[in-house]
Amino acid sequence: MTAKIHSLGGYIHEYQKSIANPEAFWAEVAEDFYWHKRCDKVLEWDFEGPSIKWFSGGKLNITENIFERNLYTIGNQPALIWEPNNPDEQSRTLTYSELYLEVNRFANSLKNLGVLKGDRVAIYMPMIPELTIAMLACARIGAIHSVVFAGFSAASLADRIIDAEAKIVLTADGGFRGEKITPLKNIVDEALQSCPGVETVIVYERTKSNIKMVEGRDIWWHKAIEGQSDECVAEEMDAEDNLFILYTSGSTGKPKGIVHTTAGYMVYSAYTFHNVFQYNAGDIYFCTADIGWITGHSYIVYGPLLNGAQTLMFEGIPTWPDAGRFWDIVDKYKVNQFYTAPTAIRSLLAMGMEHITNKDLSSLKVLGTVGEPINEEAWHWYHDHIGRNRCPIVDTWWQTETGGVMISPLPGIIPTKPSFATLPLPGIQPVIVNEVGKELTGNSVKGNLCMKFPWPGMARTIWGDHDRFRQTYFSTFRNMYFTGDGAQRDEDGYYRILGRVDDVINVSGHRLGTAEIENAINAHPLVNESAVVGYPHSIKGQGIYAFVVCGELSTGGEEGIRKSIKMAVTSMIGPFARPDLIQLVPGLPKTRSGKIMRRILRKVAEGDATNLGDITTLLDEDVVVKIIDGALVEV
Ligand code: ATP
Ligand code: MG
Fold it and tell me: Where is the Acetyl-coenzyme A synthetase N-terminal domain (predicted)?
């Protein structure tokens, strides 16, 4: 277990320590881990290159820090608890010892099939324990995993396989999601038509779907592990050896293959998990993310397992068999920490209270959210109806690139404020800068969110394109990591994320974050969800275009709703933030991870829907067609 903060005084103390001497601070955190050889140098960095190295010269394997380090004490405790898609199917629990043996067995199978240290292994699997086993098996032998969310199309999968130059793909015959089966193996077959480099496909039998096995290329998982030993000596890794590649959600453009390395990621994911969720031995922790996203990597797999925690993994979707499924799971396993995304909260909020009222949610201690700004209405609903006014909400701001949580309350320690991610974790040095990169010091400021000092979990490069890495994150502002997000630091020094900087709207000289305006619109009782973008406006520079999803229409009809939304925004923010155009839409375009893709809406608002850019990560193209059909223009 890594060091844990217990009080506000403790937080302030640790934070100050981490800023005064970051190297000493992280060296101390790193002492809790198991190293073959300790590092020679804690940190070497240069944001110009950029080149970032943590724990240089250190030798270790991350899986030994999950298993060997803990087996004597917690070997017989559950590590992974798995809830299947169908609530009537048997759930599965793997103890640390059992998971260890499975990981070793599969690691030996990979070796047997010729996978070597440094090879890339593409993983396109449903949310089943074997997905976790596969990732850890790669880490055991030093292969680099590249998990691709199992909702992506064949073309998107192929892009990612080609980009990473993977020679092997791990998949399943199919994946259960609600009433549907995703034909994973068929999708892999289609993708591989354009990936001649792939020599081997391992297929786990999950849905017993009718699939074709390609002779000489495809092998069943159960055949691959047959006769393999459950002992596998961990590959000795350098601290800076690559651990995994993970492509970003693609909210803003072509996904980037973000690269994380071994030691820094290990230390950071473990440290942040322990503190942000205030995990105590014996707690049951449930993160609803898919492992195909960074949240699943850091906070279903690595962070919890490095802390000896019991991590719950759910195969299905929140709305099947009904919209109470998350709460059934919380009730069934007596979940203590629950971590989800604003998009899920907003959609469950819209489904009504009947799915919640008779569920026992009294085990919950901490609620978390990540992925997008959470609007106040969703925050209060989560707080009142799920947390029943007892559980602090940790609004965790971070990115695929940051490896772990950066800005977040510590539950029960840092007082929360709806829609604020509050304060940076120890070791994190956020700054807000203006357009020309000047740091805005003091409180009550707004601007571009940057980091002026490295932290162990930060990405080291974009796979195969270091220059894109430099340009995207280190060239906008000199000597700083630029997050791409806008933020405000309020009068208390609390951070609030205002949305992506690309989405900031400049109306008559007022810079407005999309999150602020959406927050006000979503507070309207008939609004389920909204997205706001700017469009060229002859007088104001930019006009405000709001796309709004309503549950039902009031007696005033559409016009009435538009009017009352404008009034709501005027009273919450001011008349300058009032939307010029309000289009009522059946849904919003989202990434497969559930985030609103405002860049598509911006094109619609600009009247330029012919060129939508990269839409491979878009969840539902139908919604976009309907939005384009109903687009408004100013008269
Ligand atoms: P791409 O970089 O490809 O456009 P993406 O940024 O959506 O995709 P992720 O790394 O999954 O990919 O998401 C990180 C982003 O999500 C952050 O930069 C921020 O915009 C948003 N985000 C995450 N957590 C929060 C939060 N708690 N509050 C507000 N925004 C958040
Ligand atoms: Mg991003």
Answer: 13-65
> What is d(CA 427, CA 407) in angstroms, rounded to the nearest whole number?
11
For the chain, the domain total comes to 2
Residue 270 is assigned to a structural domain of this protein: yes
366 and 412 within one domain = yes
Q: pLDDT tier at 280 (50, 70, 90 boundaries)?
A: very high
Does any domain span residue 503?
no
Q: Probe ligand 1: pick from 398, 468, 502, 602, max atoms within 8 Å of CB? A: 398
Q: In whole angstroms, give the CA distance from residue 515 to residue 491.
A: 19
Write the pLDDT tens digit of every residue in 291-321: 999 999 999 999 999 999 999 999 999 999 9
pLDDT over 60 (residue 397): yes
The residue nearest atom 30 of ligand 1, judged by CA position, is 372
Residues 129-145 have a mean pLDDT of 98
Output phi, psi for 482, to 5 deg: -100, 125
> CA-to-CA distance for 286 and 334, rounded, in angstroms?
10
pLDDT at 555: 65
Residue type, 508: S
What's the Cα-to-Cα distance from 213 to each of 155, 172, 174, 185, rounded to whole Å?
Answer: 20, 12, 13, 9
What's the whole-number mean pLDDT along residues 332-338? 98
Q: What percent of the chain has pLDDT over 70?
A: 99
- Are residues 403 and 268 part of one domain? yes
User: Are 482 and 517 contained in the same domain?
Assistant: no
Residues with CB under 6 A from ligand 1: 248-252, 255, 293-294, 370-373, 395-400, 421, 483-485, 497, 500, 595
Same domain, 526 and 379: no
Rounded to the nearest integer, the mean pLDDT of the chain is: 95
User: Is a pLDDT exceeding 80 seen at residue 253?
Assistant: no
* Domain stop point among 458, 487, 516: 487
State the residue range of the domain holding 593: 508-630
Q: What angle do CA 50, 54, 60 make, to 5 degrees?
A: 135
State pTM to two decimals: 0.96
Please report whether residue 268 resides in a domain. yes
Distance 553 CA to ligand 1 centre (A): 32
Do 227 and 337 lie in one domain? The reply is yes
* 249/592 Cα distance (integer angstroms): 7
Instruction: Reduce the DSSP state of residue 41 to 3 states and report it.
Output: strand
In sequence order, the β-bridge partners of residue 95 are 78
Ligand 1 atom nearest to 374, measured from its CA: 28
Kindly state the average pLDDT of the residues 474-491: 97
DSSP state of 471: I
Question: Is the bond preceding residue 321 a cis peptide, omega within 30 degrees?
Answer: yes
Shortest-distance Cα residue to atom 16 of ligand 1: 371
Predicted interface score ipTM higher than 0.95: yes
SS (H, E, C) 205-219: CCCCCCCCCCCCCEE
Residue-level pLDDT at 511: 83
Of 427, 454, 487, the domain-final residue: 487
* Residue to mutate (ligand 1; options 149, 247, 251; most atoms within 8 A of CB): 251
